[in-house]
Fold this protein.
Amino acid sequence: MKAAVLRETKKPLQIEDVQISKPGPHEVLIRTAAAGICHSDLHFADGIYPYPLPCVLGHESAGIVEQVGSDVRYVVPGDHVITCLSVFCGHCEHCLTGHMSRCMTDEHQRAPAMAQRLSSGGGAMHQFLNVSSYAEQLVVSEHAIVKIRKDMPLDRAALIGCGVMTGVGAAFHTAKVEPGATVAVVGCGGIGLSAINGAAIAGAGRIIAIDMVGSKLNLAKHFGATDVINASDGDVVKKVQEMTGGGVHYSFEAIGLKQTAEQCFKMLRTGGTATIIGMIPVGTKIEIHGPEMLQEKKIQGSMMGSNRFRVDMPRLVDFYLAGKLKLDEMISSHIKLKDINDGFDTLRKGEVARQIIMFDA
């Protein structure tokens, strides 16, 4: 099969012929239909976050089950599925207390002595975040997929696999935005737009979108933003405080920068909560002024929207088909796998929400 391989950071991905194994026990073989180009992949490709190489990148995808391994009862060939990097075991403390996105078990991975799922030229190829979706086929744990209704377009479904679940889930689950609350979202890429959409569905009374790109701010209005601030026009913290009479109940950082994370904390009103969704570079420290803690302000991280994806993603599919979840407007373009490096270059410019790789193109 064809796959996009990362062999060296800060170098273009290579489209190669990669061998994929048959599904083993509790594994599923999927024909990839669509894969989103997520900014998280770019962090690893550019070496901001480390990962074993060589590997097939990609983690946001949807497809059709082709074959199942032994002991698989959840899906059958022909089922439509979304993949999710939040593979769960179902029996650890996190899973048993309803925090499946925190599951850190490695039991879904093959033992080193076994043939690995991906290989090239006789050498093992690392699977990226349990998925490796920049490939024509996937072999994943049955606990890395969720079955969805077949009337859901698979290019839209792919978006739910990471960016949408991460943003919407941060609003729904991590922050627990309340009806009537005031919200600010810093960064209007795919995840930020999803956080805006999630806050709107949750019933937030006022949602302020913040970015430096005018087209993204215009797009944010379609996702539920009631107000927009262009960050290049001045002090965003002061603007938010003036607009809300003291600050917001909830803020979300969806870029991954020290400055914007600190801004999210500062723009809170007393008792507010800042949720950091963006991937802040390894080694970066966030500074908070001590006296502000006396105002019972909180800052927290969010792992994949604190999802319970087997429950959440089918509900998001229903939201989309009911016209509540905005996915059509998020797609900037459809591209082919061979154009992946051009897609990464476009993403680096920060002017698009989501590009989708289509494998039937």
In short: The first strand starts at residue 2 and ends at 6. The chain is about 25% helix and 25% strand. The two ends are 15 Å apart (CA to CA).
